[in-house]
Amino acid sequence: NPRELVAYSQYPRPADAPQWNSDKPSLKDIKVMGYSIRTVDYRYTVWVGFSPREFLANFSDVHAGELYFVDSDPWQDHNVYNASQGRALPPPLMP
Amino acid sequence: TDALNVLLIIVDDLRPSLGCYGDKLVRSPNIDQLASHSLLFQNAFAQQAVCAPSRVSFLTGRRPDTTRLYDFNSYWRAHAGNFSTIPQYFKQNGYVTVSVGKVFHPGISSNHSDDSPYSWSLPPYHPSSEKYENTKTCKGPDGELHANLLCPVDVAEVPEGTLPDKQSTERAIQLLEKLRTSAVPFFLAVGYHKPHIPFRYPQEFQKLYPLENVTLAPDPQVPAGLPPVAYNPWMDIRQREDVQALNLSVPYGPIPTDFQRKIRQSYFASVSYVDTQVGRLLSALDGLELARSTIVALTSDHGWALGEHGEWAKYSNFDVATRVPLLVYVPGRTAPLPEAGGRLFPYIDPFASASESMEPGRQAGDLVELLSLFPTLAGLAGLRVPPRCPVPSFHVELCREGRNLLKYFQFGDLEEEPHARG
Known about the structure:
The structure holds two protein chains of two kinds.
Chain A: E1 7-13, E2 32-38, E3 42-51, E4 56-69, H1 81-84
Antiparallel strand pairs in A: 1-2, 2-3, 3-4
Chain B: E1 5-11, H1 29-36, E2 39-45, H2 51-60, H3 64-67, H4 76-79, H5 86-92, E3 96-101, E4 138-139, E5 145-146, E6 150-153, H6 164-179, E7 186-192, E8 199-202, H7 235-238, H8 241-244, H9 257-287, E9 294-299, E10 305-306, E11 312-313, H10 319-322, E12 323-329, E13 362-369, H11 373-380, H12 418-421
Parallel strand pairs in B: 1-7, 1-9, 2-13, 3-7, 6-8
Antiparallel strand pairs in B: 2-12, 4-5, 9-12, 10-11
């Protein structure tokens, strides 16, 4: 089912706020990793704590989230992640 | 049937701002022509929107969490695992593999060798004029030379009187002429540098995009609900002299709207310039009668934000930074074999009157990942598709984390073509 097809992307950050090396942090400076799940319907991203020594992402340490629905918000300008919290997320969303 | 050759074209930082992806402004007739004979994936995404991590990921078929390359400072064979690459796999299967231009990201991430000798049969070629890319060769309004972001040039005046991508095209054509008579099939990867910054392109291409026709991004403001961690502060373009002179505030800018339109104008002009290079390369492939025996794949390592969400460049998880063009031409499968002497890819001049709209080729709307390039090219060339990776797979040299997309290439109407049966 095309709706179940998923494309994953990720991006590292050195801090929660933008800073001089936010675009290209060196491995040792990575503190947060943004993991995105994309389907034809939405893009869901969680920015979680990341340890560059263990190469481990901590999905219970969520720094921020993004959720955009393709049909109603094709340019991804209206993040509804916070509004979606507290409601059960569809299974494919669970990392 | 003889094994199919493979021509892999990687265009640095190219977002799907192309006619074949529905862009009404951009002139990309040669890539559009390729698309008309190809399968076009409308929703293909990179696994990380920055050069080296994305390239190592799709060339090894492993996710960044497996290559453990999120920056530019490690070589996967030493740092994560001895993962085979697409060219290496073809080389091990009897192909002559050759690299021209920017295929692997240069430097540590490819062992300062473009991963030679593992991946390549011959020493990789890098255009000599690349060393001037970031030097002061851009004529400013003051008539002086600067290291600018916006850098339309008179090619006759730049050092060596040429540009890297022109040299890469010339070299690739020479190699095709040599490889044409080779007894074994070839895997030729050509990496174009543009439209990566600086936007240094032949100044005549600017005429294709008069500023009055260039709009701002549809959503140029930083969205209210965007978490600060998600925002990319586009620090790289700020280092260019013409952007520095704007004295922009960090991290959110904004860039003055007239300069935003100039950036977009130069990005599109760079795309049209690269389109002409792709056109010359494909026309040579055709002229050497290799179009009937060569798979052509064209893609990019990630997209590029052109002001959307108040962002520029890549470095984020937004679709504009991760979505890439992905076109695959398979002779006799995505298009009928060209008649003897027939032309599939005649060069099209983007300056000629707006070329009649190209007949679209086959399209697939399903989401796909750049990771799938490895298994799919292997399968289309008739090689054994590497097995799925176990988790974790650091200890496994040959496996794939991406889906094999071969099922999208099963078209009933062309099945009788010999290569299709292959």
